[in-house]
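Customer ticket, subject: "Can you confirm the structure for OmpR/PhoB-type domain-containing protein?"

Message body: Hello, I'm evaluating your service for our small team and ran a test protein. I'd like someone to confirm that this is what the system normally returns, since I don't have a reference to compare against.
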Amino acid sequence: MFTKKDLSHHRGAVEQLRQSISWSPQQAQEVGQSIMSSWQRSISACIPKERMAAPLVDNTAFKGNTLASALQRCEAELRHVAQQSSMVLAIGDVGSTIVWTAASREMQAQAEQVHFVSGGKWSEDAVGTNALALSLKTRQSCCVFSSEHYMESVHDWVCYATPIVDPYSNQLLGVVDLSTTWKNHNTLGVLAVERCASIIQTALLEQQKQRLYIRAFSVSQVLFNGKVLVLTPRQFEIMTILALCPQGMNLDKLHSALYGERKVSMGTLKAEMSQLRDLLGGMLGSRPYRLLAQVEADFLQAEQALDAGYLESALRLYTGVFLAKTESPFLCAWRDCLESRLSDAIFKAKDTDTLLKHIAHVPDAIDAVERLIELLPETHPAHQVLEKYKDA
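Agent reply: Thanks for trying us out. I re-ran your input and got the following:
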């Protein structure tokens, strides 16, 4: 436990450090490298000094997705945690936009004042250093204390956050945050927020019976209720098409989407559908053909991230070409559209760290190379390497 004197001393030390023009390695160690790096990114983002509350954005797209459904199962338990602990509990999506909150009486007014409410955009480029964004950035639990926050209006807060990870697919779904006033800082805060994440993960496991997860970047794989399905390449393409067309397709349209002008009989497609129905245990509907299980997919999540303007999340999912060997005209057209949208977002990006990470995973991403050459000063160590790579 911390005494009030300990907390006041720590707050003063952090505030003094924030005023410094440069930081020594020892100072960086005292505050933490992740906080120091976040401060530097926040400075580069040129956030308006007068900003006292997070921007409010539309978050209606969140409704109906996997995390939203899980929250409906456990929201009463989460509300109880917030009220009993005299804190505000917030759930953020993969872009740090708050999608759900529950606040104690003590924190309700303060949360509303700084837009720590549903629709509040708490990304680093919007409000600077904060626990939601930092936890998503590092994929680790974190604490942001008092003036470690970039925005002055939350210098009286302490926030604990941890990522929410899908227990089946291991994909990042969002972040959970517990916040209170700085004088109530406790070493158990991180454990408390991790407990909240485990409550959500239990709800995810309960709801995800009869659930499909499809991976189509780099490695093609389908998980049905957590188990890998052994599929032919055509069956995988069929499931991917149906995932992209949740309203379903009749036999003729599915044949055209899958084979195009290739001379393949309807009987061949019917045989594939019959085998798929056996594998899915009745979770394949007909007239029209459609998937009846709950469907999630890395390519759908990437598309949703782009729709929300979350380039970093989209690139984290895009680990390789979408179905590189497919001959399906429908899937080829969808892949071209996705890659065009990704490239357009990359050429508008300003975060060099995100682009460097993308190149590390996808070395032939020439659009990211060209954008980095535009963004990085010629004196940057990576600049010459990028120029050589571009000319290769």
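A couple of notes from the result: Residues 302-391 form one domain. The mean pLDDT is 89. Feel free to reply with more questions.
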